[in-house]
Prior knowledge:
Elements: E1 2-6, H1 10-22, E2 26-30, H2 33-42, E3 47-51, H3 59-68, E4 74-79, H4 84-92, E5 97-100, H5 105-117, E6 127-129, E7 132-135, E8 140-143, E9 146-147, H6 152-163, H7 171-178, H8 189-201, E10 208-210, E11 214-216
Parallel strand pairs: 1-2, 1-3, 3-4, 4-5
Antiparallel strand pairs: 6-7, 7-8, 8-9, 10-11
Helix pairs in contact: 2-3, 6-8
Amino acid sequence: MRVLVVEDEQLLADAVATGLRREAMAVDVVYDGAAALERVGVNDYDVVVLDRDLPLVHGDDVCRKIVELGMPTRVLMLTASGDVSDRVEGLELGADDYLPKPFAFSELTARVRALGRRTTVALPPVLERAGIKLDPNRREVFRGEQEIQLAPKEFAVLEVLMRSEGAVVSAEQLLEKAWDENTDPFTNVVRVTVMTLRRKLGEPPVIVTVPGSGYRI
């Protein structure tokens, strides 16, 4: 899942991004509304975590623009105000969910995951394919009865492949969904991660390389 965090309190923004990355999400961070509009115009995000009170371009205007462009991106709006009227106004602008500050990080994560599921065809909470079970909420992977311990990027790549339901996923798509924008597009990080993931998942291999196209399960 790829997420954009838009928050002018830099310490909070960076802390949220770090926490979401530990949950195997690819996260980009910006600190004002103008930069947010630039990013959503270039990258495809599943979820935008959007502070309402932003400098340069207000969060309301960022939300309106995302809605106007008809993007499948879901918006989780943040605000320091817990007033009901503010929440209603935010939802009427086109936000998909609303979370007042201060918030528990566990709740933020749960809401981001729930919104991320709404950007794609609905799938069961626990993904199963080729003898592999992946639970995104618990961050657990099993092959049969054996639990497989994966690093965040390995988990993210496996989740993208599982969600494709047998379709081929290119290296470029994996890079877009599992890494942030600071990753060198010419790096071999995808190939190395897939190789490590194959080894950890064991025999017989479940990840198939489709020459010239990508990978599938």
